[in-house]
Amino acid sequence: MPHPSLRQALKNDEFILAPGVFDMISAKVADGMGFRALYATGFGVTASHLGLADVGIATYTDMVSRMGTIAKGCKTPVISDADTGYGGLLNVRHTVRGYEDAGVTAIQLEDQEVPKKCGHTPGRKVIPAEEMALKIRVAAEARQSEDFLIIARTDARTGHGLDEAIRRGLMYADAGADVIFIESPESEAEMAEVGRHIKKPLFANMVEGGRTPIVPADKLHAMGYRIAIYPAVGFLTIAGALERAYGQLKADGHSNNMSVNADYSFAKMCELMGFPDVWEFDRKWAAAAGNLPPAKAAE
Asked: What stretch or stretches form a coiled coil here (predicted)?
């Protein structure tokens, strides 16, 4: 079931800061740190699962399975990238029901043409606003719980300007979206302009090296933003750490000098993955298992 805490936080005018997670190691680490929500990033999940660019190659089946594994493996509510809804109106209904059944609390649907592209990359094209508004209406009707949030994203800013992006955001709000996501505003002034026009909770995408400036949470809140995601911070950090570690291993021929041994021990990883529970189970049942009669030899 979706967590009611996110809808309640929005109702209470609170701010939700969500780190990007992309596999179960990143999800488990973030889950224990007290965040209000986690953001299951389409870029990161596609990269970690398929090793491919986030350009619409990952299917609904690929994504709902991975997003469900993350959601069910965490106590923290999960906001999930659901791309374009993977097709037309019937696909959108199927997507909403599938992600909700998978344990996700909120999904992001975007108005790009298929195949979609990552939001901070060039070449994105959008469908007519009226078509997307209909998708949002279908999505809002398809959910089983009101605690399942619909986040409507428009990618119109880059190709069609801020005014068109705001117009679309207002349309999607009227269609029933709970949260509005204007992708890729290019300055703090543009972000503030979005907040002056759209009065529903706003969603900020903070991508290191992306098209939008990184703005602190208190300033975002003052502009009207209520959710900020940091989708890339996890996988950029991990990729950099791996590159350094593997490079040192290749250069030294051993791992004795690696700082990773001190930063995150094997024992700590075992604890994160739940090995203490397995060991306790083994201790509890070892005597009973040892007293089982031997198997009879085949006659």
From this structure: none
Q: Does residue 229 contact residue 203 with C-beta atoms inside 8 Å? A: yes
Structure tokens at 292: 């089982």
| Domain match, 11 and 112 both | yes
Q: Tell whether 161 and 120 lie within a shared domain.
A: yes
Instruction: Please spell the DSSP secondary structure of 36-56, one letter per residue.
Output: S-EEE-HHHHHHHHHS--SSS
- Return the bridge partners of 79, or none: 39, 106
CA 30 to CA 78: how far, in whole Å? 11
Looking at the fold, whether 265 and 215 belong to one and the same domain comes out as no
pTM for this prediction: 0.92
Integer angstrom CA distances of residue 56 from 52, 126, 158, 229: 10, 14, 19, 21
Asked whether residue 296 is domain-assigned, the answer is no
Name the pLDDT band for 179 (thresholds 50, 70, 90): very high
Does residue 134 sit within a domain? yes
7-22 per-position pLDDT tens digit: 999 999 999 999 999 9
Q: Is the peptide bond prior to 115 cis by the omega test (within 30 degrees of 0)?
A: yes
CA angle in degrees (0–180, nearest 5) for 239-243-247: 170
